Amino acid sequence: MPAPSHLVDRLTAHGQHHSVMFWDSLTAADQQALAAQLNAIDLDELSALYKGDMDQPDWHELARRAEPPVAMRLADRRSGQGGGLGVTPAEAKKLGKAALDAGKVGVLLVAGGQGSRLGFEKPKGMFPIGPVSDATLFQIHLEKAVALAKRHGVGVPVYLMTSPVTHDDTIEFLNANNRFGLAEDDLFIFCQGTMPAVDMATGKLLLAEKGQLFLSPDGHGGTIAALASFKNAKGEGAIDHMRRRGVENLFYLQVDNPIIPIGDAELIGYHLATKSELTSVAVAKQEPQDKLGNFVMVDGKLCVIEYSDFPDDVADQDDGRGGLRFWAGSIAVHVFGVAFLERMLSMRDALPFHIAKKKVPHINEQGEQVEPAENNALKFERFIFDLLPQAERPIVVEYAEEEIFAPLKNAPGAAKDTPEYVQRFLTGQHRGWLEAAGAHVPQDVTVEISPLWALDAEGVAERVAEQPPALEKDTYLRD
């Protein structure tokens, strides 16, 4: 049976009729699945993206008009002063703790990626990263949420976003591990949408298999739509769940960064004290061309300009004091007001697409598998930081890289962001907490702390005061 005429006509009008060239060889179920994928695509939008007809920001022009962001600098945090935000760290911590005590804070954990660059063909959250324990990224993050709930005597719901390629494996893994101690109603798993990849030379849709398009997650900007559109077995969306639980603010992070202080009271407190709708963490760039997005103010609005879109002559500007004028590197850690996200639901399709050139394996017209050696395709993603210009009173808070940013991205052998690199940060963080609390850690000992033993430096100080641990060999501290 040939492909439905209405589908063929629609595809032909956009030069995409090749997508059903293997239709007759597919099973009825595969035909139905392929038709559903094709019908879900806005072909006009896709064509405009490929041709460059969509209204995209001129990032270079915006960068040349930019100013540094309104920020709480690290030096002011460490000195205990109010800095650019007019609120001290002590005041911020008090406000943040009160919000946590009241159950008004949730965690938004983005976990849609696979570990392909790591040679790990499973959800990246399942990667074993614990230097002594082999604890997975999922375990570390979820145990932090459990420990945070215990500290504040109230549930801290985790909203975990998957993608179609990681969703089922993630659910199976977390169920098999009893959600690492999270109560059932404290974990809401939802799935983001996808976008097709197109051939870079022709704009044609690429097939992953004869009956399946090559689809990839639509970027963390897809979070906004997914918060409302995805429903669980009870017919409840993530936004519905937040309303029911009284969650007013979300601590946002990506799954590949295990050293993040989830639910950090000080960060939440700055957000609350300034009545910010969107608070972002920055680390200071070490070099002008560091591969981090740049927080900048343009026409009074905070935004992020990707390093690839930031002109070198702008990045090179100094601040007159020996530092970089545009110092604030984005690490994808934020605090969102839930009311702000609800307001943004009406704009979920308004975020601009970012276009990336990638190597995409695919099926050619002869039905043969092609493994490209060079970039052959365009992928389209939306980024959540593009919400920044829409937010009222957005702020930036600087943290030291070693206390908040060690993302797992690359296979062993790369210069940074490898498993070994991340484990060095983890053990360095945990060693520092123990030594600050007065514990002796021999230099040849690797130590790892489960969040269930102590969540942070404050928790470690309490445990060490009660009973200093014996650290004579590689040790995993866990209750």
UniProtKB/TrEMBL annotation:
<dbReference type="InterPro" id="IPR002618">
    <property type="entry name" value="UDPGP_fam"/>
</dbReference>
<dbReference type="Pfam" id="PF01704">
    <property type="entry name" value="UDPGP"/>
</dbReference>
<protein>
    <submittedName>
        <fullName>Putative uridylyltransferase</fullName>
        <ecNumber>2.7.7.-</ecNumber>
    </submittedName>
</protein>
<dbReference type="GO" id="GO:0070569">
    <property type="term" value="F:uridylyltransferase activity"/>
</dbReference>
<comment type="similarity">
    <text>Belongs to the UDPGP type 1 family.</text>
</comment>
<dbReference type="InterPro" id="IPR029044">
    <property type="entry name" value="Nucleotide-diphossugar_trans"/>
</dbReference>
<keyword id="KW-0808">Transferase</keyword>
<dbReference type="InterPro" id="IPR039741">
    <property type="entry name" value="UDP-sugar_pyrophosphorylase"/>
</dbReference>
<keyword id="KW-0548">Nucleotidyltransferase</keyword>
